[in-house]
Structure formats: C-alpha cells, structure tokens
Input
Amino acid sequence: MDEREIWEETHGKFGYSKKVFSLLDSSLVINKFTQELMPFQNKAEMKVLIPGCGSNVNLQLCCNKVLGNNTSIYALDWSKEAIDISKRKTDILGIEVKYINQSYYDLSLNPSFYDIIIMSNAIVSESHENNVTALKNLTNLLKPGGSLLGLFPSPFNMLDYALTNNDAKKWLIDGTVNVKERRIYEKKFGSQRFFSPLELYILFKKINYQVEKFELFFYDDDNFANQIASLYNLKYNSNFCFWGYFINSKKM
Output
C-alpha cells in the first residue's frame, strides 16, 4: 500500500483522530496558531492555504475566526476521503472553504497566489525528497512577502521521550527511532522521514524564506498524553510530552 492509499484508508475507514496523532484537537495548538495569525487581522482580501488539511477542520475554523470573512480559505489534501469529510463539516458550520484535491508533490495551482500558508504536521512523507519537494512547491504558491506558519515534527522528539520515560525505552532497541536516518518507524504507517532543526533551517534559507521564529513547541496537555498512551501502548503519564518545531517565516 502506498502513502496515498494509507491516508485514504485512515480518513475513510477509521476516522483520522482515532488512528493517528491528531494535533488539531487540542486548544494548545489552536491557541498558538491564533496568536500567530493575530497580526494579519483586518487585512482585506487575503488568501490562506491549508495544505495537508486532513479531515480535521479546526484550523479552517481558526482562520475564519481570527481573519474574518474578508479572507478566502483554501484547504488542500491528496486524500479524497479527507476532503469529503472536511467539506461536510465546514458546510454544516457555515464556513466557506474552497477545497482542492491535489498532492503537494505535484501541484497545478497558480503561483504567487496566496498570502499565508498555514500547516500543522503536514510534511510527513517517508521520502526526504518528497518532503523537500513539498516545501519547494508550496513556496512557489506564496506571494513575495507572504508568510508560512507551520508546526513540523522532529525525529529527535521520540528519542527524547524514550530517554526520559522508562516505558518508552524499547523504542531505542526495536527500531522505532532511527536518529542516523532522522526516521521514525510505526507499524500502522511504515516510516516517516522528519527534518532535524538545522536541516530544516538551512532548507528554508535555500528556498528563499526569512525565518522570523523557530521555536520548540511542546504538546503538553492531557489530550496529547492520552493519545500517546493509546497509540503507542504506554502507560498514561501527563509528565511526559511530545514536541516539534514551530516556524513563522516570510518569503523574500
């Protein structure tokens, strides 16, 4: 089963938040994006793109609430199931969102069209080349001076978790964490290749972004602790949390 088929099954058969680590169900994450979007309030006729939107619509609702009805919201995913689920949800809520069923590895959209791209753990291919291509393609869609706001996963996150939590030490010997390859292996999804901090920072500079913020972001609430315990068959422990990178950047 290839990557696209895995995500189709995830969204359509099982329901996204029941099978994978869902960041957007937490007010912690939504509050962070709300905070970062506040400087863009009251700017008319903006266009926002949410790539890898999945079937969770909390990011669409966040953009609509903060930026208002003068902002056009576009949401993109390569999973037809995810698009259908999301559209039903936003239609019921009365939020106008333009959905695009495409892969950001192979986009056919207008360049320099969007003012903001906002994403949450959307760059998670098993292929490093695909992850780089996705960021390059998305950069092409931003207007000069446009902003990319995103949460990115870290390959060192689960290493850190395993080093500090005895229940997760098995990840160091069972192949779940491969630091050398910057890769995480999961039975449900195969492997995912993530960026190291320096690797991601250098890539952003190469594709012509000015990085204004590069922060560690801790998923530190009971919602995530429960998800970790359930998904990885660990004891619930609210003292241990996952983390990733938050980036606020501008296309030069």
About this structure: The mean pLDDT is 89. The first strand starts at residue 47 and ends at 51. The radius of gyration is 18 Å.
